[in-house]
Amino acid sequence: LNDWGTALLFDQFARELQGSNQRNQSSRQLTSWFLLVKAGYNARIAYNDQVFLLMPSKQPLFSTTYFTLNNQRYYSVALNEKEMKPGKVFTYSGKHLDGQRNLDFSNPNNFIASSHKESRELSFSYDGEQYNITISYPKDMINYFKTFPQLDLENYFSAGMPKETAFSLLTQLKPIVENQTETEAVNRLLRFVQTAFEYKTDDDQFKQENYLFPLETLYYPYSDCEDRAALFAWLTQSLLNLDVVIVDFPGHIATAVEFNSPTEGDSWDFNGKRYTMADPTYVNANVGMTMPQYQGTKPKIVTF
């Protein structure tokens, strides 16, 4: 388990021990706090009319209440409880010698989920040929990702995919891109991500901003630009071993690829390399093509 999985495991143990109803909330939080500290995590208790668990994180967390103590942010991590609203709480000075480690949300796929699998059919066409992809994914992993607080965008690009799902998807896409030029192979992956998934904004689907891990993009009926960009980046790196960066326009996320030979179209120099536009949301667009509304706009380039 990664750190977040460990925290959730302690919470589940506390629920079995203390019960899941609201009147046992404080006991659950105290039990989780004790286990986290003994496991080496920098956790602390805060309270007003109820008990809250506060922990620092290596990654910034968004839409999560936090308090700054000794120049360090302590986030109110919900662990399946109601999220803490900003307000006044009491806590103590210092921290336990046993608990020094901050939460690290990286490596989210670092465990084997239960055998409860679901499948989905995906299809796309390219150059007059139809392709059908059948994927299988662990449903419990989707439920796990729902518990994550909102992280920086780069975390979703570097997350990867569960091994079983990765193997299923990559083995079906590999024959479609092998023995092609780099540009042609990337165009085929672009068309898959552009057209096999229906588009909908986070506000329309979730009523709030909600970045998706690549596995979640395979699961949810809709996805938006940053979700598709993260999935495409992982596919391109995994299948073609090409370097990919995030292209951040005002209000739009895309990607750019470093090719081993010159390519046509829009491209940018970054860290001594040349990256060519590859937009997984611009339907039917090939390598080098930028959405018309962003033509001439210099984007922010972000690595992950």
Describe this structure in words.
Helices cover 33% and strands 23% of the residues. The chain is built from nine helices and 13 strands. The strands form four sheets. A five-stranded antiparallel β-sheet has the order 11-12-10-9-13, covered by helices on one side. Strands 1-2-4-3 form a four-stranded antiparallel β-sheet. The chain has a two-stranded antiparallel ribbon with strand order 5-6. α1 (3-18) packs across α2 (25-38) and α5 packs across α9 (225-240). The longest helix is centred in the N-terminal third of the chain and has 16 residues, at 3-18. The mean pLDDT is 94.
Number of helices: 9
Strand proportion: 15-25%
Low-confidence stretches: none
Write down how many β-strands occur, each being a DSSP E stretch of 2 or more residues. 13
H/E order of the elements? HHEEEEEEHHHHEHHEHEEEEE
- How does the major sheet shape up? 5 strands, antiparallel
Rounded radius of gyration (Å): 22 Å
| Spatial strand arrangement across the major sheet | 11-12-10-9-13
> Distance N terminus to C terminus?
22 Å
Mean pLDDT: 94
Helix amount, in percent? 25-40%
Features:
five-stranded antiparallel β-sheet, 304 residues, alpha+beta, elongated, single chain, 13 strands
